[in-house]
Amino acid sequence: MQRLARVLTEVFSPTVVVSAFLLTTGAVSDGWRGLWFGLLAAFFTAVGPFAGVVLATRLGKVSDHHVGNRRQRLPILLGAMVSGFCGLVLLLLLGAPRVSIVGLLSVIFGMVIVGAVNAFWKLSVHVSVVTFAAVASVLTLGSGFLPALLIPAAVGWSRVKLSDHSTAQVLVGIPAGCIVAAAYAGFL
Questions:
Q1: Which of 67, 136, 143, 156 is the most exposed place for a label (fewest CB within 10 A)?
Q2: CB of 176 within 8 A of CB of 125?
Q3: Which residues, 6+ apart, have CB-to-CB distance to 165 below 8 Å?
């Protein structure tokens, strides 16, 4: 069970989920052009910041690539938000499709919510992000994505099983993700 929990945690990590969401929504809405802008949005909101986390981990500045130490999360989130805003400016200058711009803004909004909570308490970012992606997919792409709503439960189980979060920390990630998904769907 421990191995399954580790696999779920890695496969549905925030970087993977945000990247897949931005690429998929971009491609679905605008084909290859949307895929390109989704890739650009993912670079600035997920891939680039994750590369910074990996570097910080190797330099001993953060505990691990999931930034398990709550006190280390705020500077990481602030850096990711700055990167996201740089990506937003670039997307606007290049005339990106609305779905890519709203997707990037939603990820930044999610970082604000998670950062605010994590300044005081350790909310599960994994569960928050996977809930956002699942709910936003259902709201904007249709009922064919309803099975995705099971993923947050599996990821939440994995985070508790690995002792990375308490049940309460996992459960609070769900409404955080729902708030961001509602904002995403509302602005599309």
A1: 143
A2: no
A3: 122, 124, 127, 156, 159
pLDDT digits (tens, 9 = 90+) for 10-59: 999 999 999 999 999 999 999 999 999 999 999 999 998 888 888 888 98
**Amino acid present at 6:** R
pTM: 0.92
CA distances from 42 to 7, 23, 68, 122, 128 (A): 22, 7, 22, 24, 17
Nearest to 136 by CA among 160, 109, 97, 154: 109
Q: Dump strand ranges (E) for 26-150.
A: none
- Give CA separation, 86 vs 9, 26, 89, 155, in Å: 28, 19, 5, 30
164: DSSP letter: S
Place of tokens 């999610």: 110
pLDDT of 73 over the 80 cut: no
Query: Which residue is it, tokens 């439960």?
Result: 153
- Extract the tokens encoding 79: 């850096």
The Cα 109–Cα 81 span in angstroms is 9
> pLDDT tens across 126-172, in order?
999 999 999 999 999 899 999 999 999 999 999 999 999 999 999 99
